[in-house]
Design a protein that fits this description.
single chain, 7-stranded mixed β-sheet, 14 helices, 402 residues, alpha/beta, binds flavin-adenine dinucleotide
Length: 402
């Protein structure tokens, strides 16, 4: 083996992209430290999908079987009217373009837990800490941690999500790169008193959607209140109370279905996750010895359903390029050249996701429901398959790095 240009890497963020990157770096004999601001790994959470090229990435990690064992296997998504009557119902793949029997639908925290378990003995994890400042040197980066430690690394990687700390430290304010899609969401758990089992229900109004889904009838229901809002509320800093007030205000006067119950549960929820539906678009993902991966570099938004898949594929490609290129600059350039077209195609899926999830008018909602009814009728009980987005999910063929 030739002498590697890179020996030490500091990664910010221990969710999906960070631990996946640590996995591949260890495989190539590169020492990774992962710093995470949360006190511990966060389990549970909403289910996410892994599809297309990302399935190849997890197969190459040898983790496919473990992830499939945690597969949620949602059977249906139903669209209800104000009385809770289901007016259209389909299998989820008809909407997402997923492949039944092959894709993985897994709770975000379960995915993070599997990735963490596969890397905890080979990477150095620092929970409850973050990077306070970075100083680029000719041959590396000096990192000062919030805890006060200082250390030098060959490379620093931002895998710290939509509101990336590393992006702010190195590239400047998030507003330069945020493409606000025009919506906000409040996600939280509530008791599953609806008997929902591996199914989702959605009640759509113009510019609003109230969604619940459950991975089984014993566990909690995951609730989402999504609403249109003219400017990203993150332009002002919102307190937890502000986030709850804004969400409640946007659903004020909506008495249909179980919306009042959902708003009440949101008010009391201990696990509220509020955010803007935004993408990140950057002209370049690296600067000297610092590079971004996953949502930090190119958040696609949940309306694309592809954020975690992009994070897994990006981690594979970035680690492979770092391990096999003679210098850092050519590794970062090759990573971006390969990933950027794939990312852009997947970011573009948001347009369709928006039309389905949050139509603007009653007419558009009726047209969507009629289209889904027609698709379900034509399928006559069989699984409906949508091919168009599948090509996008699988548009990148992974290179072999070793
Ligand atoms: C409701 C919802 C549904 C979704 N559905 C899907 C789906 O079906 N399919 C899909 O593929 N994707 C989906 N996504 C998107 C997916 O969750 C993200 O795209 C994915 O988690 C990105 O992974 P990441 O590791 O890049 O970033 P993140 O998961 O955002 O992780 C960032 C990590 O960095 C940490 N961090 C942040 N700041 C700091 C700091 N200063 N110092 C140290 N650590 C820090 C955070 O605590 C976190 O652990 C969905 C997202 C939402 C919100």
């Amino acid at each position: 083996m030739t002498e590697r240009a890179v020996k030490t890497v500091l990664i910010s963020g221990a969710s999906i992209a960070g631990p996946a990157l640590a996995f591949w770096l260890a495989r190539y004999g590169i020492q990774a430290t992962v710093v995470e601001k949360a006190a511990s790994l966060r389990g549970g959470g909403y289910p996410i999908d892994i599809r297309g090229t990302a399935i190849d990435a997890v197969e190459r990690m040898g983790l496919y079987a473990q992830m499939r064992a945690a597969h949620v296997d949602s059977q249906s998504i139903g669209f209800v009217d104000e009385h809770g009557t289901v007016v259209a119902k389909l299998n989820p793949e008809a909407i997402t373009g997923g492949v039944r029997g092959k894709d993985i639908e897994i709770r975000r925290g379960d995915l993070a837990t599997i990735l963490y378990a596969a890397t905890k003995d080979t990477a150095n994890y620092r929970f409850n800490d973050s990077i306070a400042s970075l100083e680029q040197q000719a041959d590396g980066v000096n990192a000062t941690f919030a805890s006060g430690d200082t250390q030098t690394y060959d490379i620093v990687i931002g895998a710290d999500g939509l509101h990336s700390n590393i992006r702010s430290l190195i590239f400047g304010h998030e507003l330069q790169f945020e493409r606000y899609i025009g919506f906000c969401f409040a996600g939280f758990t509530m008791p599953n008193t609806f008997g929902l089992d591996r199914a989702a229900l959605a009640y759509t109004l113009p510019g609003k959607n109230a969604v619940i889904y459950a991975t089984n009838d014993n566990g909690p229901a995951y609730a989402f209140l999504v609403f249109k809002h003219p400017i990203s509320p993150f332009r002002k800093s919102l307190t937890d109370e502000d986030q709850r007030d804004l969400t409640a205000r946007m659903f004020e006067g909506v008495s249909g279905w179980i919306v009042p119950q959902m708003v009440e549960a949101m008010r009391k929820a201990e696990d509220l996750f509020f955010d803007a539906v935004s993408q990140i678009h950057m002209p370049v993902w690296s600067k000297e010895h610092v590079v971004l991966v996953g949502d930090a570099a190119h958040a696609t938004s949940f309306l694309s359903g592809q954020g975690s898949s992009m994070a897994l594929v990006g981690a594979y490609v970035l680690a492979g390029e770092i391990a096999t290129r003679p210098d850092i600059a050519s590794a970062f350039e090759a990573y971006e050249k390969l990933m950027r077209p794939f990312v852009e195609m997947n970011q573009a899926l948001v347009k369709e996701g928006k039309q389905i999830m949050i139509p603007d008018t009653h007419e558009e909602i009726d047209a969507r429901n009629a289209m889904f009814r027609k698709m379900a009728a034509e399928a006559r009980g069989k699984v409906v398959e949508k091919d168009s987005s599948r090509q996008v999910h699988s548009a990148l063929t992974l290179p072999d790095y070793c």
